[in-house]
Amino acid sequence: MSIRNFFAPARAFALVSFFALSGFLGSSGPVSALTAAATVRDGNSIQLGDVTYRLDGVDAPELDQVCIDDHADSWTCGIEARDQLAKLIGKRTVRCDDVGPEKSFGKRHRAICTAESDKASLNEQLIKLGFALAREPIKANVKPAATEAKTAAVGIWKGCFVAPQDFRAGKKDGALLGAACRPDRDKEIRAVLFPEELTMPPSCSIKGKLAVRARVTGNIGIYHLRGCPSYPATTKPDRWFCSEDDAQAAGFRRAYNCRRPK
């Protein structure tokens, strides 16, 4: 037997071990698919276990966002979007297929999620009901549902609103969307959609302020926790958050003088 042939089995074993180890180490990243009981964080975020996914292709109103309905009354469309997603799920388990990282939402990943026994994804269903817009990047098949909802003027489309991304950025001159928008009432509508005193959603007491100085750290704003010196001094917050994770996912950093309350 030649020396080359003698060492061939050893080389093969080493290669198999290497790829097996690589696969093992690679598995420490985000799970490609996860099935579990779901907790709805907001209109486009679902938590399975300790993993929070953003529904791919879905941009729902934020929990603290206000819309105008078809009777010209303001309503908490972000809370309604969350409740609609929770209603679609009910008490069923949910499977989320990871489709990649979400660069704009912290460490979260995008996913196509489907409730047990459903054929259509939650991504598609929520947009079809009119409680979210289609958002890039998109791997979920939601664009036809988005067109259908807009044409039928259902959900938030029956009234008047600004795109969630414009609300998050405080872009008060963003395009007005929906069947009930009136050009002759532009100023009045924007005053409702961007009120001076933004109402705090239930159990969402973290204050967020958009701040140019936050851009130094790659953020768009700063958040303040209850019990911190900066909390009472922060009046008229631009955003309200339910958790630090939500605030960080939205691009806000904690105030430097603010430690986590004990």
From TrEMBL:
Keywords: Signal. It comes from the Bacteria. The keyword Ribosomal protein does not apply. InterPro entries: Ada-like_dom_sf, SNase_OB-fold_sf, Staphylococal_nuclease_OB-fold. Residues 1-33 form the signal peptide. Residues 40-159 form the TNase-like domain. This is Thermonuclease family protein. It comes from Bradyrhizobium zhanjiangense.
